[in-house]
Amino acid sequence: MEPSSARPDDVERRLEVARRSQVAGRPDDHAVAALAARQQGRVTWPQLLTRGFTPAMVQRRVRAGLLHPRGRGVYAVGHPATWREALFMEAVLGAGAATRLSHNFACEHLGLLPFQAGPPHVLSEVDGPSVRREFIRHRSATLRPQDTIVVRGVPCTSVARSLVDLASFGDVAMLEKAFDRAQLRRVLRIEEVESVLAATTRPRGAVALRRLLALHGACPLTRSELERRFLQVIRRARLPEPLVNLAVRLEGRKVVPDFRWPRHSLVVEVDGAKWHEGPVRSRADRRRDRRLYLLQGWTVLRYGWEEVVGEGALVASEVERGLEVAGRPQVAARRAM
After folding, report:
1. How many other CB atoms sit within 10 Å of the CB of residue 83?
2. Which of 120, 129, 192, 251 has CA atoms 20 to 30 A from the CA of 327?
3. Is the pTM of this model over 0.85?
4. Where does the pLDDT of residue 331 fall: very low under 50, low under 70, confident under 90, or very high at 90 and above?
């Protein structure tokens, strides 16, 4: 059973035993187990000392295989096995008090980015070593209580603060991916991001993040990496922003085009293998194209991964021509901005 699976009543019982043991001046392994259950199976050297353990007692438990060193001053309780959240907790505990998982690793923990390689990044209000094998520390004097949360037992920065910190890396593609994922998961709060930016002294990457905030209302959600890449192509070409994944009714049925410009009667579908591969799916796609064209009078363009990623300029020019058929003045006005 993983440490975090202990029942609340068991944890409270163990804590009560721990309190009694400390009053009696005796160390208590149940107290350590209860603490580890709330910290992904990890405890720190100071936490052991405050629960009545002496250095000799700690060393005896290390030799007996009850405690396993996991970096400077951090121990795994009971077994040396690790998992992702435990690795994050080791970094947070090892960096000291008032520390939170941050930047791209906070985004991973919050479900906004995939697996991130390397030692976890943490944000701390206190000074200390910037780089260790177990973590990379960033210091901030503007980390507010509302900028921190606890997710699955791991203290980390909030979604808004994580995006602001991620922007400081200067990796626009990574920032856009995390931003779009936050939109998709309905956890993005524009006012919270603006509040963090206002509270942070000269935040790096603020220009790129504010550009995404400005576009937030025009393109709310993407569902795949290919859709995100297509939006990048459109934005680089400075074409009008489309409606993204918004449903329409066709013959009484709901249809969700990937991208739609209603004023220009244009629809673009991007065909990722996950959703569009196979003869049945392809036939359904072509049938829907015919219905859109015949019943609504829309032009439908389809692009695959190779075209969007490898021929972005050509895709942008074709979309622009499609927009100009019914909306030349609007495109020209946007180009002049």
Report:
1. 12
2. 251
3. no
4. very low
